[in-house]
Amino acid sequence: MDDRPVTHTRRRADVTGALLVGGVEKRELFLAEYDPVWADLYSTHEARVRSAIGNIAEAVEHIGSTSVPGLAAKPIIDVLVTVPDITAEEDYLHPLLASGYVLRVREPGHRLVRTEQRDVHIHILEPDDPAADDYLLLRDHLRTVPEDRHLYEATKRDLMTREWSDMNAYAEAKTSVIEEIKERARSSRTAS
Q1: Which domains does the chain have, with CATH numbers?
Q2: Out of 110, 120, 138, 163, which could bridge 115 as a Cys pair, Cβ 3.0 to 4.6 Å?
């Protein structure tokens, strides 16, 4: 485990251009019924991430559909890792690549590494990035509100009946329903 102290240096501007390593990929998309093994797979990768980058990881969270018991999902484990400075790639990206993950996306404010088998996606953001909060907001809401969990699953099942050029096109097609659910989740959060 990396026990180097986290140093807080003056943050650099993330001048990274958007890079999709390997270009657009056409993949077979399908939904699997919820599998409790997904939580175990997440735990394995959480340990692997923490071993690779130690306390540079401010948080490691299971996100996405596989993190919601009872929700059918593409069997891809999504993991959120927050780091203090996304531009300090030497602190987190290089060790993750050395531990066997492969870079897929490098864009301003976000990095994504994955397994060679493409069954685990590690999303790397800074803790104050609104997208980090959105991932957790959606996950927690879907875990506790069956109506929205059913709506989301029905939407995904409908979208699976269509042909997609790549996973990004499929993900984009879900955006309006996700935004609708997140809006209800935000309203519930402020009402509490």
Answers
A1: 28-191 (3.30.460.10)
A2: 120
Tracing tokens 């959060």 back to the chain, one arrives at: 189
**What whole-number distance in Å separates Cα of residue 182 and Cα of residue 26?**
28
50, 92 Cβ separation under 8 angstroms: no
Amino acid making up residue 133: D
pLDDT > 60? residue 142? yes
> Nearest 5°: phi and psi at 20?
-110, 100
- Quote the CA–CA distance of 34 and 68 in Å, as a whole number: 8
* pLDDT at residue 59 greater than cutoff 70: yes
Q: Which two tokens stand for residue 191?
A: 């009402």
From residue 25, how far is each of 21, 66, 115, 168 by CA, in Å?
10, 21, 15, 9
Q: Which residues pair with 112 in a beta bridge?
A: 105, 123
Separation of alpha carbons 170 and 181, rounded Å: 17
- Looking up tokens 């699997």 gives 32
> So what's the pLDDT on residue 165?
75
* In the predicted structure, residue 152 carries a pLDDT above the cut 70: yes
Which residues, in sequence order, are CB contacts of 94 under 8 Å at separation 6+?
none
For residue 1, pLDDT over 60 is answered with: no
